[in-house]
Design brief:
- The chain is α/β, with parallel strands linked by helices.
- It folds into four domains: 180 residues, Acyl-CoA Binding Protein, CATH 1.20.80.30; 90 residues, 2-Layer Sandwich (D-amino Acid Aminotransferase, Chain A, domain 1), CATH 3.30.470.20; 133 residues, Phosphohistidine domain (Glucose Oxidase, domain 1); 309 residues, Phosphoenolpyruvate-binding domains (TIM Barrel, Alpha-Beta Barrel).
- Helices cover 46% and strands 17% of the residues.
- It contains 36 helices and 31 strands.
- The chain has an eight-stranded mixed beta sheet with strand order 12-22-21-14-15-16-17-13.
- Helix 13 crosses helix 20 and helix 35 crosses helix 36.
- The two termini are 15 Å apart.
- InterPro entries: ATP_grasp_subdomain_1, PEP-util_enz_mobile_dom, PEP_util_AS, PEP_util_C, Phosphohistidine_dom_sf, PPDK_AMP/ATP-bd, Pyruvate_phosphate_dikinase, Pyrv/PenolPyrv_kinase-like_dom.
- This is Pyruvate, phosphate dikinase.
- Belongs to the PEP-utilizing enzyme family.
- It catalyses: pyruvate + phosphate + ATP = phosphoenolpyruvate + AMP + diphosphate + H(+).
- GO terms for molecular function: ATP binding; kinase activity; metal ion binding; pyruvate, phosphate dikinase activity.
């Protein structure tokens, strides 16, 4: 629950005396989203602001939790709903479903977090064979009444009774074909009356019962259907994708109906206070005359731009513009608004903070700062690292020779290339086999969610910026082009016909540009993002020709860097990576993996080291490796001059430097059969057998290797020390830190450190230079974390190796499990996200917290960092801030993300402190 928790909320989802399960729209506010859901809380807020909201009431998320846990609604809920329905009927001056002038209501879902199209809605509840006549008489429009009734049966049949929606769609298409019309608005009252009869027969056949004529039964069943929709497969999948908790439940909003399908002076629309694709200010949205809201969201009929409403109904347009300004100033953010006009009267049906593209998020945050609506700290909370990462992806090369075959609405930016597929099943299947795909549909619906997730991008021939495809794609950061009307999509034949008659078959490669709306045949080459060019120093913020997006990113990053406490380092193994990392804002190297320096031409030297039979042979090999290692470090220290460089001594098992055992056995066998010389191969084979381990990641590696192979670690320490001394002699400022890997007990570290200190002292004496090298260890084993207080006695710093720590805590071999059962674990909800992607706070995180605390109790000045790839994961960065680490380290490309999230973590923790 939020801090605005209502005192009458049920504890643990139980129905108890005095609990309030239903709130009138006049009773809530926008801060009660936990209880009333986002939709209900915002309907209440708009009501409080005096905006024209149709009267209604909200059934709380607590009622949903009781229903989902027990299978029954709370005992008091029916009476509460009856009381609020009575009050609504008195206010409206008519009763639900009465024969002469029926009150009709909508029943709509509304969870705390927006889940567009994932849960259920039923409109026009209260219509029956009797009340449809009264509605027609009262409205003076037979067509409107029968259109509303067929919509109710269609939505109720699919949503509540589980009838296949395609059956209703096919019947509707058949009715239009019989009438020789293309859109449903051209069907007349008599046609719709026949369609109602057909729909009722479909319900009877498929559901095994008649469509209910009792309006209260309709409402109660619809309420239960909305509760049930919280646990549909598509809703669960969406929550996993968006990391929304599964235990929140949904509220249910019962709202008196207003009608956009009463003729040309009525309509429905969706509006944004700013463009959700670009962030630019202006008039953005879609409007559809003579329609209900689901028509716009479903993308079944193509809308007109919102700006055209000014010519259609200027009074409503002007009122809407004023309301939009009021809402944006009140919420201090981009607002997404649903509205209906009923015979020239404007009604507000919903508002929420709108989903937006990554670029729009950065632009809007800085715009709102400039307008004085929010401060810099709040601006940081309006963007995130995932959005920044998206902005760093490449985009299409506009100078390339391309074949443009269509253009739609630029709904969600990005450059997506893939094979055309025409249904979600194929998208998922091909994606899992490694293919990149573009999902092409006439319009998407919630059942397409798994295919949308699997695809590189989504292309539809219908719908606008507010259609299901556009809203969901923006929320997921997927490239999307909607409403490309000139493209004829035939999902049954699995093909798309483009202007000029060319046919795109399933499997043909297409490219879509979500920033321009253009559709291309074949694969279009890409160029670096301007945001990457900015971080690389090839584009300068503040210049006259600076990209507007780059300017916004620059400002937000400056905010983040000023606010953050965590420093950000890079995982880099050579000078080239180090220089790039420094351009990206790295404040040092947190992990230099020296094993990467032993590959290539040096593999033969390592083989000789392994095969050495005597101390003299071993020392000769080490002597040859020393200058090569030293030069590596000289280059690294030069590229990171003045910044810390943490060098991890050799970590992987030595067998990784030797030939494959099977391949080598074949070579030896062939040589023997041919009676060819094979002494060296035989010695290698014997060494491979000698070093072979069943589980090498838990075997002879890290500090164990340094203790077993005399001189190996001391050679590396000498190379580091001599390189530092050389840089100092050249007036450089090397700041080397030596990290001992895979320590499980303080005794291991003490032995290695004693040898290292001796070597460093020798180099200092020989060079006449004081080096000030620090020595620490990786905490990557559970035992190291549990004995961190002891280990800190011999360590000047800890760096948490969260990749290995995750493997050893979970008992996972990462290379094996991710490909074998992680997909099943994610689908079953055992994982919300892979523990290798985001740190497991309860398990691995608890050990990090424990070790950090114990280490600093022993050594208060102990420096703490993390060098697993979790260091660049947005959610994990927040955890490391909370634990009190000094820095995170990640790959160069993720450094800007870590910088941004470190700033956000600082701001959010300050906000928590103030509360």
């Amino acid at each position: 629950m939020s801090e605005n928790k209502d005192p009458h909320v049920a504890e643990h989802g139980k129905s108890v005396e005095g609990v309030k399960f239903v709130y009138d729209f006049t009773e809530g506010n926008k801060d009660l989203k936990d209880l009333l859901g986002g939709k209900g809380a915002n309907l209440a807020e708009m009501t409080n602001l005096g905006l024209p909201v149709p009267p209604g009431f909200t059934i709380t998320t607590e009622a949903c939790k009781v229903y989902l846990e027990s299978g029954e609604e709370p005992a008091a809920l029916r009476d509460e709903v009856s009381a609020h329905l009575d009050a609504l009927e008195q206010r409206m001056g008519k009763k639900l479903g009465q024969a002469d002038d029926p009150l009709l209501v909508s029943v709509r879902s509304g969870a705390k977090f927006s889940m567009p199209g994932m849960m259920d809605t039923v409109l026009n509840i209260g219509l029956s064979d009797k009340s449809v006549q009264g509605l027609a008489k009262q409205a003076g429009d037979d067509r409107f009444a029968w259109d509303s009734y067929r919509r109710l049966i269609q939505m109720f049949g699919k949503t509540v009774l589980g009838v296949d929606g395609e059956l209703f769609e096919d019947a509707l298409e058949a009715a239009k074909a019989a009438k020789k019309v293309t859109v449903d608005t051209e069907l007349e009252a008599a046609d719709l009356k026949k369609l109602v009869t057909k729909f009722k027969k479909i319900v009877k056949t498929e559901a095994g019962r008649d469509f209910p004529q009792d309006p209260r039964e309709q409402m109660d069943l619809a309420i239960h259907a909305v509760f049930d929709s919280w646990n549909t497969d598509r809703a669960k999948l969406y929550r996993r994708q968006e990391r929304i908790p599964h235990d929140l439940g949904t509220a249910v909003n019962v709202c008196s109906m207003v009608f956009g399908n009463l003729g040309p002076d009525s309509g429905t629309g969706v509006a944004f206070t700013r463009d959700p694709a670009s962030g630019h200010q202006g008039v953005y949205g879609d409007y559809l005359q003579n329609a209900q809201g689901e028509d716009v969201v479903a993308g079944i009929r193509n809308t007109v731009p919102l700006a055209e409403l000014e010519q259609i109904d200027k009074k409503s347009y002007d009122q809407l513009m004023q309301i939009m300004e009021t809402l944006e100033n009140h919420y201090k953010d981009l607002c997404d608004i649903e509205f209906t006009i009923e015979r020239g009267v404007l009604w507000m049906l919903q508002t929420r903070v709108g989903k937006r593209t990554a670029g729009a998020a950065f632009r809007i945050a800085t715009q709102l700062v400039d307008q004085g609506l929010i401060d810099e700290a709040e601006a940081l909370t309006r963007v995130n690292g995932a959005q920044l990462a998206q902005l760093m992806f490449p985009r299409f090369d506009e100078s390339a020779k391309v074949e443009t075959v269509g253009r739609g609405i630029a709904a969600s930016p990005g450059a997506a290339v893939g094979k055309a597929v025409f249904d979600s099943y194929t998208a998922v299947k091909w994606s899992r086999s490694g293919e990149k795909v573009i999902l092409i549909r006439r319009e998407t619906n919630p059942d397409d969610l798994d295919g949308m997730i699997a695809a590189e991008g989504i292309l539809t021939s219908r719908g606008g910026k507010t259609s299901h495809a556009a809203v969901v794609a923006r929320g997921m950061g997927k490239t999307c082009v909607c409403g490309a009307e000139e493209l004829e999509v035939d999902t049954k034949r699995r093909r798309m016909t483009v202007p000029g008659g060319h046919v795109v078959e399933e499997g043909d490669v297409v490219s879509i540009d979500g920033s321009t709306g253009k559709v291309y045949l074949g694969e279009v080459p890409v160029v670096p993002s301007p945001v990457v060019e900015y971080f690389e120093g090839r584009m300068h913020a503040g210049a006259e020709d600076a990209d507007e997006l780059v300017e916004a990113v620059h400002r937000i990053m400056a905010f983040a860097d000023r606010k953050r406490r965590l420093r950000v380092r890079a995982n880099a193994d050579n000078a080239e990576d180090a220089l790039r990392a420094r351009r990206f804002g790295a404040q040092g190297i947190g992990l230099c993996r020296t094993e990467h320096m032993f590959l290539g031409d040096r593999r033969e030297l390592v083989e000789r080291l392994i095969l050495a039979d005597t101390q003299a042979e071993r020392e000769e090999s080490l002597k040859e490796l020393l200058p090569l290692q030293k030069q590596d470090f000289v280059q690294l220290f030069e590229s990171m001059d003045g910044l810390p460089v943490t060098v991890r001594l050799l970590d992987p098992p030595l067998h990784e430097f030797l030939p494959d055992i099977t391949e080598l056995s074949v070579r030896v066998a062939l040589a023997e059969s041919r009676q060819e010389p094979h002494e060296n191969e035989l010695r290698l084979l014997q060494a491979v057998h000698r070093l072979h381990e069943q589980n090498p990641m838990l075997g002879l590696r890290g500090v164990r290797l340094g203790l077993v192979i005399p001189g190996l670690f001391t050679m590396q320490v000498r190379a580091i020390a001599e390189a530092a001394a050389e840089r100092k002699a050249a007036k450089g400022d090397p700041r080397a830190e030596i990290m001992i890997p895979l320590v499980g007990t303080v005794q291991e570290l003490e032995i290695v450190r004693e040898e290292a200190d001796k070597v460093i002292a020798e180099v200092e004496a020989a060079s006449g230079t004081q080096l000030k090298l620090s020595i620490g260890t990786m905490i990557e084993l559970p035992r190291a974390a549990l004995t961190a207080g002891q280990i800190a006695e011999a360590a000047q710093f800890f760096s948490f190796g969260t990749n290995d720590l995750t493997q050893t805590v979970w008992g996972f071999s990462r290379d094996d499990v991710e490909a074998s059962f992680f997909t099943a674990y994610l689908e079953k909800g055992i994982f919300g996200v892979s523990p290798f992607e985001t740190i497991d706070k309860d398990g691995v995180g608890s050990l990090v917290k424990l070790a950090a605390k114990a280490g600093r109790e022993t050594r208060p000045d102990l420096k703490l960092g993390v060098c697993g790839e979790h260091g660049g994961d947005p959610e994990s960065v927040h955890f490391f801030h909370e634990v009190g680490l000094d820095y995170v380290s990640c790959s160069p490309f993720r450094i800007p993300v870590a910088r941004l999230e470190a700033g956000r973590a600082a701001v959010q923790s300050q906000g928590s402190d103030h509360r």
